[in-house]
Design goal:
This protein has 738 residues and is mainly β. The chain contains 4 helices and 56 strands. The two termini are 50 Å apart.
Length: 738
Amino acid sequence: MGTMTRREPDSTGQRRLTRVLVALVAMITVVGSTTVLVGGAQPAAPAELASAQPRTDLPVVLDGEVSVVARAGNTVFMAGTFTQLRNSGDTTVVTQPYLAAYDATTGALRTDFDPVIDKPVQALAVSVDGSTLYVGGQFSNVDGQKRRKLAALDVATGELDTDFVFNADSRVTALAVGGDHLYVGGKFTMLAGQAHTRLAAIDLTAGAVDPDFTVDIEQGTGYNGGSAVKALEVSPDGSTLLSVHNDRLVGGQVRTGVALIDISGPVATVRPWYTDLYDLNRCNGADNTLVRDGTFSPDGSYLVVVSSGDDYPPACNTAVAFPVAGNGRVDPLWISRHFDTVAAVAITWNAVYVGGHFFYEEAPGSDNPWPGAGLQFRDGDARELGDQVVLRRRLGALNPEDGKALDWSPHTNGDRGILALDVAGGELLMGHDGDEIAGQSLGRHGSFALPPMPPGADFVRPLGLPGPPVTTTTTTTTAPTPTTAAGNAPSRGYWLLEADGQVHPFGAAAALTAAPAPAVDIAVLPDGESAWILDTSGRVYPRGSAIWYGNVDLNSLSPGERVSAISARPSGDGYWIFTDRGRALAFGAAPDLGDVSNLALRGPIIASVATVTGEGYWMVGDDGGVFAFGDAEFHGSTGAMTLDQPVVGLAPDPDGDGYWLVAADGGAFAFDAPFRGSLPGILNGTPLARPIVGMVAYGNGYVMLGADGGTFSFSDRPFLGSLGANPPDSDVVAIAAF
């Protein structure tokens, strides 16, 4: 990069800076009390960040660059321009150009995954069920068959999907999966013989380009008028497609640099949401936009766009956060100056991780709207700003509240620096063109362990962006009356799952796409938008931001053994699947804590519940036998009792020091937990329309679920609704709450 010195702006740069300051004045006028733009006290730093020490057991990529990473189940994929790599601790060089895979647990290369691709790969996406890897790039052939710029591979075998043929006339640079659609972005004007300029959608169910998705991206604003889609991502709730591009028009509307596209209905439309930041402010003293990447926050409340283009803030060499809400012009929540290229971004619940070629980030408490206003540092050397900046070589973490640097600095090297970041499977995955990560020779790919989201924690949001609504409740001292309600303390919503895979949301629970029938159980995340649905074949269907970690191989079970329940770690990095014979199968980061498959059970296992820490679980049999593992504690059972009806569910009490069981007739049994009531004591002999099939913790008590979708609350929490008055066509089999 040469010697790094400060350069005073020339006349062109000065005119550009004037435009920047005019735009900022407008932003300050509109935003008003937004602390980031007008100054204010330094916010508190978020909690624990990613480990600063990378994994050392991963494959070492020896040449080229890793420019995109992805994960499906227990397999991590790396793609880019590289051709050679080796296993950690092994000198044997493996030639595997442009795309390779390894086992996420062991770090060993998957030598069985070896597709032959003739040119570099630039984009990856994984199908909702985790079985297919979609690949985009510059290539024309895969495994000897013509596949121009786009192909599909089997995750398990690496084999080419011969039915997936959607050739493009120019490179594919971005891919995203949402529901039953694959969104494709790049430089093309034709996809599968149909006219689509730089953006198209493939209906994976129909196996055809979607004719109702006609959102062309036009009028390039990159170098020399160049154009390209740099990033695509579907929002956590599945309703919105984010496009980051160096173009001016999206669907015929001015959306320079970034656009949000509504994909919730049958016909895609460009949302009224827009920013003029990249239209008013250009890079390199010329009329360029040079956005490089963008992503949604895990809760979908904000997004961050990063850019290159020399030191011309606010639109170049910056990370910029925007609110997702809005039906018109939106202003940035914060602008984080980096003085050099920012090429990649990933967001966790408490940090915004960025990578590129930069050397400095804004220090906590530094000047707003950014340090060094009025000065340019074209070579990225901002050291003369003293305590206004901190040293961060190519990789850093930003406070979501204000975009200032957090205390995390595992420096890397490389001519271009960090090119890819992704959060998957409890790890921060990265790709670059260097050979050092945190001072260790680890090649072009690395991974840092992420801390789980602490129980009860909420997402850290930018200043000026409201958090979740605060609700208050009044505890009643009278015996609760059964109502049709459901939830989980402290609950804001819940879902009921039908046997046919339909999911019914109540309260603040997000609408979720149905799963193939027959469904067995549902496990949810605390965000109210994400879940896993388990079917009788042992397949898991992730919804929202939930990650697929694997399915049950039914061939590994005993004859007649069937899956019966799924429980998830609240951190979202893994889940357990249980069988009726007491087997517990761990996926992702869920620990193997043991099971009762070696015991002669008096009744089949019918339900499971994870502890709030994600480090334990209870299993319950239909005889009321309870089995506790990890940090789950045993408080008693009905295993030795003679019951009128079988037990169908368990719910822990709010303090975790006890639990309740419920039987099919609505009879409740309390163990080191206060008794809140039962249906036989309320109904006085009146029979239930349908038997009780499950139970969930809710407020200071519990909710029982009937097979007709009726719910009965014994709790201090408010009623949110049920299906009891309008039973669905198939039985309701499970309830889950957040």
